[in-house]
Amino acid sequence: MNRYSAIPMLAVLVITVSCNDKKQAKQSAAISADNPFLKQSTLPFQAPDFTKIKDSDFLPAFEEGIRQQKLEVDSIADNPQSPTFENTLVALEKSGRILARVQGVFSLISGANTNDQLQKTEEAVAPMLAAQRDAIFLNKQLFNRVRTIYNNRSSLNLDAESLRLTEYYYQQFQMAGAELSDEGIAVMKKLNEEEASLMTQFSNKLLDAAKAGVYVTDNKENLSGLSEGDLETAAKDADQAGKKGKWQISLQNTTQQPVLSSLTNREVRQQIFNNSWNRAEKNDSNDTRKDIIRMAELRAQKAKLLGFNSYAEWKLQDQMAKTPKAVDELFAHLLPAIEKVKSEAAELQQLIEESGTDFQLEAWDWNYFAEKLRKAKYDLNEEEIKPYFEINTVLEKGVFYAANKLYGITFKEQHDLPVYHEDVRVFIVLDQDGSQIGLFYCDFFKRDNKSGGAWMSNIVEQSHLLETKPVIYNVCNFTKPAEGQPALISFDDVTTMFHEFGHALHGLFADQKYPSLSGTNTARDFVEFPSQFNEHWAIDPDILKNYAIHYQSGEGIPEELIEKIRKAASFNQGYLLSELVTAAVLDMQWHTIPEGETIKDADQFEQEALTRTNWYLKTVPPRYRSSYFLHIWGNGYAAGYYAYLWTEMLDHDAYEWFMAHGGMTAENGQRFRDMILSKGNTIEYATMYRNFTGRNPKITPMLKNRGLL
Ligand SMILES: [Zn+2]
């Protein structure tokens, strides 16, 4: 699954006041007058001038940005005039411009092109921003003003978007705990602090646990089945770890490990699987079980303090699902996956027996035999299809072409705008009438100093209030070809390009007054909807014909290859869905415990949680075990991992709507743009969705697509 896009705007805007002035003073280098973030860029679209930005500019700009925003926020809170929408909420929306500028560029560079200095800056800035957020959203004086506006909102003659902004701010303050007594706020700050330090501790332990969990062998035979390339990597990894002459298999953060689909030695498979499964449960200094229990308890306490029965109940308020009950219903609809898993398991068991061996299928066997079956059943060879997916053709004749057919937009490459790396390309996006919509940067190739995965975000947020147009980027990790060679990518990569560009469209079509509500600044269980929806066009016959062209012969992809790609896409779906659902179930179970419940044993809790919800599957372990579930304990997805499944329901349902209404027409595209892609967070999500399809989302199209019906 792709790394998340959409860093909530809040981070910039409302990310608030400063934490520890002394500490800042120590780190602080005085900001020089020519720091590029002090002033708005004069380039088109306020695009950053990367030729003028030095690594040493970021930290002072963050410090100055935070300081200035604090002054702005204080003057809003201390304003002697009685609170109005303009002098409070609009003023908040306008605050923090320096911070927004530096944060927009820093997020991009520190993710896509980092170095030691930028990493140090990142570490220094994270707590400053976190503390600032608390200082704004737990600022009682400011909250009192927001509440007054909120209480009078129906008599203020506000337009719909301003009304939504009022409700949005009120809810954000309320969720943070601004309504609590002074004593309550003090308790909340303490709980936040303890949680934040446990989250960092968890992430650090996990890194060490993964390092300690590597599989090392001095017998190459043990790794038979791996490709020469994989073996080379294993030898290099061992070498770098000071184990010259050996082979090392490093752990990825998921339960299943990529090598398990090709390793022929069953005992080695089992060992690597166990290394993964038990990585953070060895009763040593990397054991995370006590930490996660404590975090679950802290979160339950926070929820109780705010008047909720559970953390999930509190957290889901501003999401599309709204309640844990709605998420449970989604899980219940997905229960047919279990039957599918059983039939897939039976097929694999048969393959085991046919291969002349005699053992029961286990979790560490699944991917190995599934891969065998996939080859036998679909005969789909990556090397055979890659020549049809040359990256520039895919981008221009696939991704851009689909957007042109649906939304009428065109793209003009810019060679004069500065970039931060030679691989980056920049396009101006033009509307049907030739007017400029925004800028699109793409940075597709893997680099050592780039984070893994693929993502989208904004450098500049669209806002009519601030008179800004969107400046958007997509970052991916495709293998860079040797000098002079074409970049041929897999169909998975093609899908990723369409996915990330779906986020880009959501950002480009933004048409909001207020930056906090603009573009992709939407709930987690909504933001992946436009991106996943856009993936459907990758395999649309008309689009595919246009972009899947052999890079040498210029011939279109043969029909039978398309058919193979389609068929292979439905393979092993019971397993793939179930490992996601079981992880999402664990997340919800940990975050619906009532305050005061003591959990003695994390493993027992996990086992009981899966059994109680009917999701315990012996051969399908959760994609992440509780003790290494970084999303929920370290990365802000607590009670939020279900979002991937929720948006999958939306994207298939919306695609079905398209197909039932004439398919890929400009008219349907315009409707989707008008009612979804351009709406940001200005309408309640369920209403927005109903406006588009005329009904509530249905689960059936997703189940059909996963082969569960
Ligand atoms: Zn995404």
Q: Beta fraction of the residues? A: 5-15%
What separation lies between the terminal Cα atoms? Answer: 23 Å
Q: What is the CATH third-level topology name of one domain?
A: Neurolysin, domain 3
- Give the overall average pLDDT: 93
| Sheet/helix structural class | mainly alpha
- Count of helical stretches: 29
Textual characterization of the structure:
- The strands form two sheets. The protein has a five-stranded mixed sheet, with helices on both faces. Strands 1-2 form a two-stranded antiparallel ribbon.
- The protein has helices at residues 10-13, 21-27, 58-77, 85-94, 97-112, 116-137, 140-151, 160-176, 182-212, 228-240, 266-277, 289-305, 311-315, 324-333, 336-354, 363-378, 382-385, 391-407, 491-508, 524-535, 541-547, 559-568, 573-590, 602-612, 630-633, 643-660, 666-677, 685-693, 700-705, and strands at 215-217, 247-249, 410-414, 425-430, 436-445, 455-460, 471-478.
- The protein is mainly alpha-helical and 709 residues long.
- The two termini are 23 Å apart.
- It contains 29 helices and seven strands.
- Mean pLDDT is 93; it is low at 1-27.
- Among the domains are: 10-186, Neurolysin, domain 3, CATH 1.10.1370.40; 213-277, no CATH class; 386-517, 3-Layer(aba) Sandwich (Collagenase (Catalytic Domain)).
- It is globular.
- Helix 3 runs antiparallel to helix 4 (85-94).
- Helix content is 53%, strand content 6%.
- The structure holds zinc ion (ZN).
- Zinc ion is lined by residues 2, 5, 499, 503, 528, 531.
Lay out the secondary structure.
Blueprint lengths: L9 H4 L7 H7 L30 H20 L7 H10 L2 H16 L3 H22 L2 H12 L8 H17 L5 H31 L2 E3 L10 H13 L6 E3 L16 H12 L11 H17 L5 H5 L8 H10 L2 H19 L8 H16 L3 H4 L5 H17 L2 E5 L10 E6 L5 E10 L9 E6 L10 E8 L12 H18 L15 H12 L5 H7 L11 H10 L4 H18 L11 H11 L17 H4 L9 H18 L5 H12 L7 H9 L6 H6 L4
Parallel strand pairs: 5-7
Antiparallel strand pairs: 1-2, 3-4, 4-5, 6-7
The protein binds zinc ion.
Zinc ion binds next to α19 and α20.
